[in-house]
Amino acid sequence: MGPLRPPHAPRMAATPDSLFPSGGDLDSSQLQMEPDEVDTLREGEDPADRMHPFLAIYDLQPLKMHPLVFAPGVPITAQVVGTERYTSGSKVGTCTLYSVRLTHGAFTWTTKKKFRHFQELHRDLLRHKVLMTLLPLARFGVAHPPAREAAADREIPSLPRVGPEGSTRHASSKQKYLENYLNRLLTMSFYRNYHAMTEFLEVSRLSFIPDLGSKGLEGVIRKRSGGHRVPGLTCCGRDQVCYRWSKRWLVVKDSFLLYMCLETGSISFVQLFDPGFEVQVGKRSTEARYGVRIDTSHRSLILKCGSYRQARWWGQEITELAQGPGRDFIQLHRHDSYAPPRPATLARWFVNGAGYFAAVADAILQAQEEIFITDWWLSPEIYLKRPAHSDDWRLDIMLKKKAEEGVRVSVLLFKEVELALGINSGYSKRALMLLHPNIKVMRHPDQVTLWAHHEKLLVVDQVVAFLGGWTSPTAAGMTYTTDSLTSGTPLNLLPHSLDAHLVPLQSFQPPTLGLDCPGTPDLSQNRFFWLGKDYSNLIVKDWVQLDRPFEDFIDRETTPRMPWRDIGVAVHGLPARDLARHFIQRWNFTKTTKAKYKIPMYPYLLPKSTSTADQLPFTLPGGQCATVQVLRSVDRWSAGTLESSILNAYLHTIRESQHFLYIENQFFISCSDGRTVLNKVGDEIVDRILKAHKLGQCFRVYVLLPLLPGFEGDITTGGGNSIQAILHFTYRTLCRGEYSILHRLKAAMGTAWRDYMSICGLRTHGELGGHPVSELIYIHSKMLIADDRTVIIGSANINDRSLLGKRDSELAVLIEDTEMEPSLMDGAEYQAGRFALSLRKHCFSVILGADARPDLDLRDPVCDDFFQLWQNTAESNANIYEQIFRCLPSNATRSLRALREYVAVESLATVSPPLATSELTQVQGHLVHFPLKFLEDESLLPPLGSKEGVMPLEVWT
After folding, report:
1. Has 385 been annotated as catalytic?
2. Which InterPro entries match (predicted)?
């Protein structure tokens, strides 16, 4: 009922002006509702169960469309907790700000309002009620709650009609009036969900999502365009004609801020807090009256407020939010990483592909919200579990099923220079994007031609993350055993362990599928692990026609498959959040910098709060507790910021190691000369060995490298320019030239270097076409283990491309054990970390063939007996392989002439297969010495007239 009319006042016709009051007439009884319009608040339920799911960030609506902002059935309460009086420059003179504390479930926030804001809210709500009275409610989609309340409960106390600047002396009573007024309105969904009320309360669809952290700060602001720190995205001028002001809804959370378009509700920009974070207030810093400037490494965002007091309030609140739970991201941490060490983290290692991709498949099945994948190369048709009898475990089919369930899949691929690299990322993008609208794929970059996005990462629900050396997944990366050579091992003959020796070749003719028919072949009778291009030997022939994944491209009858060795890791909780944040940073950076991705079809991604990272809906079995720190190499071209924490962690770990280093890596190009090669990993190894030699310490360094670089080339004629270029820089690091490791060690200690360092590769053998065959095991791992307590696993090679930060983008994790178990070190009792020790012992077991040597003790990697056993095994295996297969590379071929003479002699495997097979029984494991004298008399740099020769040397280093 409205205010009482004087007894002799004339009754006026209802006009628009008379329906909508103005001024200070704020009788709240005007807002009285009928019983069926009153919302019923439910009791006895856990409010957290009714909060909005994280996927709500992908379904935002215009703010004036009355979206469901509050959780149904969860009360909202208001309390006016204080007032601030200040002198205004306006005609009003003295103003009062009311601090209103609001609570909705576990969310609590404070907003500051003047009395005129209550007046404006009152008028807006009254207009809303009148319009709903005059027009059909169904047109506005207003639902009538089933419950009714007593009339007495619906009475609303009236507000004082004079503003707080009037003569009344009862300020506390006015606070109570305002509090009761708000609380009564907040019990009615008709008013509570109206956009004027949500704007007054400073809430939106993003306010009450637990995984986004606290409520944060929200409100309507004006923001200035530009400010991006990426060339080409901002105007170089400073005049007003160079920018524009736009009205937006700003949301500030604990580790990022965003603003949304008021008309569409879509997120227009996301700014992650980082070490460049700074908030400044005032015209001097913002070039705007009542301005707030928020700086990060990516952008300088300028906001405009209604008053200097409001600007100070916003600046203070944003700073406090960033220095709360988000403080981890506004400072650099150990090794200058963006992420701090995370204690008590569940981590699990993987050696080779069977376990890794099976765990990836199981994690994808658990996905409820998001799947992030970033990769150097991705094959959509890869089978994650083998042997495949249906398409249930095929990656693209699995992603499609999850997308149909509502999971959002975001894939970020490296966009290669097609003339130089044939990974066909365009096909991968098309194949995935056609599956479902919930699958989004972006490629980056367009302009950088020398460097690559080389990291490999898969994150599920920002809860569990996988990373490592696998190009996850490609045909080569799907390796089940390091010694599997033949065309496809039959299921009924495959040893259960997947690590045993090979059985004879079985004929296999996979179906032919072209671009017009990319589906799944008939797998009902399949008994093989490697279908189509899964069967590969990248030195014999590089991959071609990747849009025909099930077509063979090498002859299975004559060419052995090259085994592939890799190391990976899965982490849970906070490190998974950190890795997801890296992906989100790169995704949003790509969306911002590439015009084709600025459309709403490609959404901005939001990082989950670290405050909920301990809530793990699922975990991978076999995890071990350790401290984990995420490391990376990124540059302004790749992620908008510069970081080289992987290099820093390598150098520090080597420098601080006490007993041994075990390194597996695809490349080993180091030893800085200040010009061609800049990283100092090799220099630190030299310094550490020299220190041990000076102090008389027992210290070992184990290095495992692929025997040949992974480029197509005929090694019998020298291998081609690409292979020779990588060999040149590898040998320059190891043993050739004044900067090499062995040259410097020999100068200091002569032949005693052999007591400290072992450089090896891996090789295996099998049977093909009735003849024994051998092939190197391609080491693609990127791993370092120090002292059985510290492990680095990731995608970074030991070269300048991966480690400097300014070139390729990379990811890694530094894992430090906190749970110890008894072991041995140099003959003495030693507390070794469970994660590092179990990983190192597994690697050594496979490499040394421990299954056939039950008396082999792998606990002590430093003692003389073990080191001598390692060296003897490598030498014996290398000699046997050379006698039987005349393998390449070989120390016997120091020049191209010697190489031609060497390959002209038939091998024992060709002349007498039975005798060769008998001799091969003496091979133990896969370890062989790396041939340090191969082609040492030749210059291996590419000729200047070749295409490889005209490329900058930085491409190879």
Report:
1. no
2. PH-like_dom_sf, PLD-like_dom, PLipase_D/transphosphatidylase, PLipase_D_euk, PLipase_D_fam, PX_dom, PX_dom_sf
